[in-house]
Amino acid sequence: MLAGGEQSRVETRHTAMLQAKMRDQRSTRPVRVGDISPKGMLVVSDHPPSRGDFVDITIGGHHLAGQVRWVQGRRFGIRTRERIDVQAVLSGKPAKSRIKGKKIEPKNDPDNWPLNKLIAAYGLLGVTAFASAYLLVTYFVL
Q: Which residue from 27, 42, 69, 72 could staple onto 34, CB 3.0 to 4.6 Å apart?
């Protein structure tokens, strides 16, 4: 039995040395993941969070949430909320979507509108703004 009532590690840890971004309650900053297992990771940062803080780590397309379990200098350990697909993270493959089905694409994306539709939309916006200004001036001034 280890100190603090912790059990020995059963999960295999893989040396990683991956660049990542960490977001905690203070800021978002670059970090380095030293090793990773299905339940957690060792992270190195110039400004580590405090023990017990919740953090989000982004490695490639993978978003991992967890709690800081220990801090020692610049190094700290994170226990993740969900199991990590270690091979996908190490290989750099994008994260698998947990939602099955077809990807939803926006059907009415203004970036893809033709010029005549944009002119009509901005014209309507201008008329609405002018009418609103007229009503406000009439109500407050007159």
A: 42
CA distance 36 to 77: 10
Q: Find the helix or strand (DSSP H, E) in which 40 lies.
A: strand 40-44
Give the SS3 label for residue 69.
Answer: strand
Cβ atoms 11, 39 nearer than 8 A: yes
Cα 138 from chain centre: 48
Residue 46 tokens read as: 């110039």
CA distances from 72 to 76, 87, 93, 130, 132 (A): 6, 27, 31, 62, 60
Q: What is the pLDDT of residues 10-63, one digit of tens each?
A: 677 877 788 889 888 888 889 998 888 888 899 999 888 989 999 988 887 888
Inter-residue contact 40 to 89 (CB < 8 Å) = no
Prediction pTM value: 0.57
